[in-house]
């Protein structure tokens, strides 16, 4: 099958994650975008009312969408504006309605408008009775004034990452600089304002537009981080917050990405052990070490030159993104092992999910490289990155010795080293004074190791952590753990947190 869309089609495993993946280069395009001077027709500001219409690209008839106008720069509320699109599924029992349960996609860069439709069947009838499910595309994401960097296609998985092959650093640094320059040419008006803090400020305008005094929230991975930033900025507006595998705002982004490298290596060992136990089926090796050597050999070969199979040239970026899909969720082990076995044998792999992010169907005006551009824009603007290339070279060398597969990749230079400065200040979790939250985590999570979720729970006073012993990411509600789902449901419906941290 053509691999041109996205790994985000995997349930839970990749839909709400910030995942470095190996990546190959793409050519530049001259496409540019002009900044919007006004909101689109039908928008509303503050509490003046919302015009609910059909949602672009979503077929669920009960899901309705509206536009909320927000400032491009929250320091200048009367200046240029952009639109943020929200969606809503009303509570099923208006007599028992408590309020709104807000949610959005992970990434950063994942859409949130479609999420109420996919969440609704997985939530309990009690939760559905009490809450309007409200999703939103964050600023610059899909329906919400989307941006791009002028390239003709997405990066694998929607993440700009390079493999840090020996001897390639000067070329990769030069490519990172070119990419940053292209992004400035295409969307420079937006880049300084693409911050999680601004997305949280938009959330509060969404709250006001909906006429709510407080909001409840369900956010996984990056969206969990967004929830903690909102709670830090607007603690008096927080009702019941479920933070599923949240990223720690105090360590974004480079310290967080390098800090989870050991978990990536451990996830690869887990996948390799699983495949070794099934050598007769996959033929990748009879031991964990043999399978790992096979996977590493394929990636190294692709880093030297793309592997051409059936008319498609598999880059190290695509195969690295495929490996990440496997190590994120044990439910993908079989699919990924079979794909690598096919590549090893020179056969075209059959995948149930595509590799590059898809253009959202029925959503006009979204640039071809939109998800990659949005992801890198938020990561670059949220916190300072080293500007000295020697820092990256030093870290690559250090990581190569300790974590040879993913260490150099996660430590490598990227466009953030050359990014324009943000017009915002990072919002740290250590300043959070919000009411206690329910924090959820899987004990063998690779994307957000459980130590990160524990740190978030500890920072928000009175919060409780609920864990499951599983190799997955952002497990509520789709992983299907009955204990976990019941605990979250009890909290959302009664407001009662567990008496202590809970292992399901």
Written account of the structure:
By secondary structure, the chain is α/β, with parallel strands linked by helices. It contains 16 helices and 13 strands. The strands form two sheets. Strands 1, 2, 3, 4, 5, 6, 7, 8, 11, 12 and 13 form an eleven-stranded mixed β-sheet that branches. Strands 9-10 form a two-stranded antiparallel sheet. Strand 7, helix 5 and strand 8 (238-244) form a beta-alpha-beta unit. Helix 4 (196-209) crosses helix 5 (222-233), helix 9 packs antiparallel against helix 10 and helix 10 runs antiparallel to helix 11. The longest helix is centred in the middle third of the chain and has 19 residues, at 169-187. It is globular. Residues 1-47 have low confidence and may be disordered.
Short description:
The chain is an alpha/beta fold and 504 residues long. 36% of the residues lie in helices and 12% in strands.
The helix count comes to 16
Give the helix level as a range of percent.
25-40%
Proportion of residues in extended strands: 5-15%
Radius of gyration: 22 Å
Q: Main β-sheet: number of strands, strand sense, barrel status?
A: 11 strands, mixed
Q: Oligomeric state of the chains?
A: single chain
Q: Mean pLDDT, as a whole number?
A: 90
According to DSSP, the number of beta strands is 13
